[in-house]
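Lecture notes, unit on binding sites. The following record was shown on slide 14. It pairs a sequence with protoporphyrin IX containing FE.
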Amino acid sequence: MPVTYSSYLKLDQLLSLQQPLSDGPEHDETLFIVIHQVYELWFKELLHEIDYLTTLLARQDTPRALHTLKRVLTILKVVVAQIDVLETMTPLEFLSFRERLESGSGFQSFQFRELEFVLGAKHPAAVERYPAGSESRRRLERRFAEPTLWDAFLRFISVTGYAVPPELLARDVSAPVASSPALQAVLMDIYRRDPIVASLCERLVDLDEGFQEWRYRHVKMVQRTIGTKRGTGGSQGAAYLMTTLNQPFFPDLWAIRAEL
Ligand code: HEM
């Protein structure tokens, strides 16, 4: 059989995967399913690109690392902008099918947790939520034990010739990234003397800010759609999500701004 557009993209399978659970079904459930599926595809692509970025940093390939970061940032803009589409759904439209979600929630997105892990937010509790032996648990355990993008960056600047504190290069990579005044001095030196590596730092700040922007837009969408109700995932809803804001992945890159 010759390859066609449909066969290459497996469109028959792809387009059969949107299956509303509500009676009718309710008109808005299709949007809700499509948008979540699109998110999961973008999460997959983001993980794919961030993994590539870490190998490029290990190879000291700065031009390609910057190019790949640009792609990651462009995707991030798209995933933030997608929230606009979901915000066209009113609270009553969401309520028309919400109970059919039962305890299902984006809270359970294992790819989102993988992204958090690769970016440095290593919360062991996030692994425990998945059944032992499941594919999602296996993936998260692997990511949890792996170095983060920040570790790849530290190694990159160390090989470039900067005096990264040895304890940071030997740190337990399954621990959350913590801030380090000694590293901040190194980063300030980079900002003052090395425009190429400084631009890499700035792109990492863009990535950090972009992720926080998604969290902020998501919580605002949640507030306008369900107000102060609890989430289907069992949390306090918007009140819980507010606690996840303003928690940067790369704290040292933010700390130095007050000193430069
Ligand atoms: C009407 C739309 C949405 C509502 C009302 C909503 C609501 C919520 C709520 C209340 C939570 C807190 C956990 C819980 O108890 O359920 C949550 C978490 C989450 N949602 Fe949504 N959500 C919506 C759309 C989306 C979309 C489109 C995505 C994209 C994948 C998404 C991804 C997530 C993620 C990743 C979390 C976990 C955040 C964290 O723990 O930091 N949500 N959502």
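Take-home: The longest helix spans residues 195-226.
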